[in-house]
Design a protein that fits this description.
Structural class: alpha+beta
Largest sheet: 8 strands, antiparallel
Radius of gyration: 23 Å
Number of helices: 9
Number of strands: 14
Distance between the termini: 35 Å
């Protein structure tokens, strides 16, 4: 007999070619106490946003089904599948079948942590997934839950960018000038890193993670690196791409959580002893600090929304971002329900 735990699944067909797994999502479904609830990846509109999961109204009793019975049932909802191999279409009989269980249930999200939203663009064509990874250009973000906090954070980021551009009016944004330092640049670094401390502390507090000592430090913040995948962000300044790409968290290491972030270590040094460490209040650290703040904001809220595009989307270019396994995606809420934030299992 079929033995599937309660949860949300994707019925997937796949083939493996040259060691690469090409997968096509056929039918999303939920198992609940022996009942099958078939869903669609289409997001239906309500009065506020497009994040309601469409579900077929009649649950199906599968308590006595075998795996093959379930596959036959699911295939009645989507029968147009084919997979392309080197320009030749193969029929469904030639590919393998699997059930992928997503980590969370409908409408459940982690507190203060971004994930893309399962949507129809991720399940639109053959080869929707490659080695369990959806295409990044199909990502859809959650609606902003707390627009006031998001606007305030964006305003602070925008002000820091304005201050940086004011510096560029005096110090030309050339690579040769990235070592230039001064009080205005020091202020940018301190304000940006103070905001970073605030955001990281806030994410940990939301999930009830207490600091190791009296106050939160990088020894605590490093816990965020894996769930937020901060080391995967690569950013640049759109008008000044000749300054290069910035990867502020690329080398973040739990064995040395402060020292492995050179810009953060320098922030601490110039904050506590300006005269000795004044040269570390330089443009490189200022830009890294601003880019680190932008990366944390994206890992907290996403960026596919009108407020981001309006305020910073034309200034900061996103060159690379995390690739999320299909199991990690958030699932839209059901009609009549709200999103339910839960603690991340640190």
């Amino acid at each position: 007999m079929l033995d599937l735990e309660n949860g949300f699944y994707l019925y997937v067909n796949y083939d493996t070619i040259n060691g690469v797994k090409y997968q096509t999502i056929r039918t999303p479904f939920e198992v609940s106490n022996g009942k099958l609830i078939v869903s669609s990846c289409d997001l239906c509109e309500d009065e506020t946003d497009k994040t309601i999961l469409y579900q077929h109204p009649l649950p199906i009793d599968i308590s006595h089904y075998t795996e093959q019975d379930l596959i036959r049932e699911l295939e009645t909802f989507n029968t147009s599948y084919c997979v392309t191999r080197n320009g030749i279409s193969d029929t469904i009989d030639s590919v393998k079948k699997e059930f992928i269980r997503l980590n969370l249930n409908c409408g459940t999200i982690y507190k203060g942590i971004y994930r893309p939203l399962l949507n129809e663009n991720i399940a639109k064509h053959s080869d929707d997934l490659i080695n369990d990874l959806p295409k990044q250009d199909a990502y859809v973000d959650l609606p902003i839950m707390d627009r006031q906090e998001y606007s305030n954070r964006l305003n602070q980021l925008e002000l820091l960018l304005d201050d940086l551009y004011d510096v560029f009016k005096v110090v030309a944004p050339y690579k040769e000038n990235l070592s230039c330092f001064g009080n205005k640049i020091r202020n940018i670094i301190i304000l940006a890193c103070t905001e970073i401390d605030s955001m990281m502390k806030g994410i940990l507090e939301k999930s009830k993670v207490k600091p190791q000592f009296k106050f939160y430090t990088t020894n605590d913040y490093i816990k965020l690196n894996i769930p937020l995948q901060l080391n995967e962000y690569t950013l640049s300044l759109s008008r000044f791409e000749e300054l290069g790409d910035f990867k502020p968290f690329l080398k973040w290491d739990s064995n040395n959580p402060t020292g492995s972030l050179s810009w953060y270590l320098d922030y601490n040094n110039v904050k506590h002893d300006r005269e000795v460490n004044f040269s570390k209040a330089n443009l490189t650290n200022a830009i890294d600090s601003i880019m680190a703040l932008a990366a944390i904001m994206m890992s907290r809220f996403g960026y596919r929304n009108e407020l981001w595009y309006e305020k910073v989307g034309k200034i900061i270019k996103i060159k690379a971002e995390p690739k999320w396994n299909i199991r990690e995606l958030y699932i839209p809420r059901r009609d009549g329900e709200e999103f339910t934030p839960i603690n991340y299992p640190f």
